[in-house]
Design brief:
1 helix
Length: about 60
């Protein structure tokens, strides 16, 4: 899994968690969107935390 930053039509950036399964990309979760660089970075860090938590062995 990895974090993708997509630029939207209105200029904001969406933060998404993406998984590649069977040769196809799948959106696992959308965390939000913003135009503020600080908010975008905060969302990206939150996405990375979610990925690391989900990959820990149980």
């Amino acid at each position: 899994m990895f974090v993708r930053k997509n630029r939207n039509r209105n200029g904001s950036i969406s933060i998404r968690i993406i998984s590649k399964e069977g040769g196809k990309y799948r959106v696992v979760q959308t965390l939000g969107s913003s135009s503020d660089p600080d908010e975008i970075e905060r969302l990206a860090l939150k996405a990375k935390q979610i990925i690391t938590q989900s990959q820990k062995p149980t």
